[in-house]
Amino acid sequence: MGNRTRVWEIVEVSGERDSTARIFDAAILSLILLNITAVILETVESVYSVSPRFFRIFEWVSVLAFTIEYLARLWSCTADPRFATPVTGRLRFMFRPMMIVDLVAIVPFFLASYGYLRVVRVFRLLRLFRILKVARYSLAVRTMGRVVRAKREELLVAVFVLTMLLVVAAALIYTTEHEAQPIAFSSIPDAMWWAVATLTTIGYGDVRPVTAAGKLIASFVAIMGIALFALPAGILASGFMEEMASKKTVICPHCGKEHS
User: Fold this and answer.
1) Cα separations in angstroms, 19 against 5, 113, 177
2) Ranges of H-type helices in the chain
3) Rounded mean pLDDT for each run of 10 residues along the chain, 260 residues in total
4) Quick one: which of 97, 94, 92, 124 has its CA closest to 111?
């Protein structure tokens, strides 16, 4: 087995029985979580001011580790027959979603290093995108991704229905409340804020109907919001049940082999 193939197995294939690959995954996952913690703590002045140098050094080490990981994947991807071509194969591999996430995880550091002072903070906050790298190492996140892909059509229908109800609710409340509250409900787009707050049953109270017809519409929209927002949850729940059922195996008492 060549070095390239072995590196590919460690950084990308990550078999459950490969102890080296499991250690690598655990180390990168730990580094990602520590990075997210560091980004959060940097916003706490009393913590950051104690040792800003420590945060800078940790950022350098993290970027170095993530860059090496990215280059190792790019170098070893030709061990996979799908990306065997040195140039075009690597280009196809670079544009895979998770490779783009890996690149986004390190680019903000270099942008912040060479950017203007007033945009440095924005680039530094982009480091939070490193949390997306968790998807590569978390079985739960990968399972969630498979469920969402399997149920994407049902979820799109649910989102479409919610969007239609949002527009209709905003239009109705604008029609009934505009004369009574011309500032709060000055247009349908402004009324959409109220519709979102009501459909999600948050009800901030900063904008609320005062007419009898408006209150009746608000009551109906709130009830519909409870019913319709349960749709995506039910779709995802059924998707998880199907995913878990597909992984169950039964051991045959005669041959001792596992069967789905």
Assistant:
1) 16, 37, 65
2) 3-8, 19-42, 45-48, 52-76, 88-94, 97-114, 117-125, 134-137, 139-150, 152-177, 188-199, 212-228, 230-247
3) 85 77 86 84 87 90 91 93 91 89 80 52 54 65 80 87 89 91 89 87 79 91 83 84 71 50
4) 124
What pLDDT score was predicted for residue 176?
92
In 3D space, the residue among 185, 192, 184, 186 whose CA is nearest the CA of residue 166 turns out to be 192
pTM above the 0.85 mark?
A: no
Q: Give residue for tokens 């996140």.
A: 141
The span from the CA of 75 to the CA of 71, in Å, is: 6
**DSSP characters over 193-253:** HHHHHHHTT---SSS---SHHHHHHHHHHHHHHHHHTHHHHHHHHHHHHHHHHHH--EE-T
Distances (CA, A) of 223 to 176, 213, 243: 19, 16, 31
Q: How far apart are CA 139 and CA 135, in angstroms?
A: 8
72-101: burial string, b at 16+ Cβ within 10 Å, e else: bbbebbbbeeebeeeeebbeebbeeeebeb
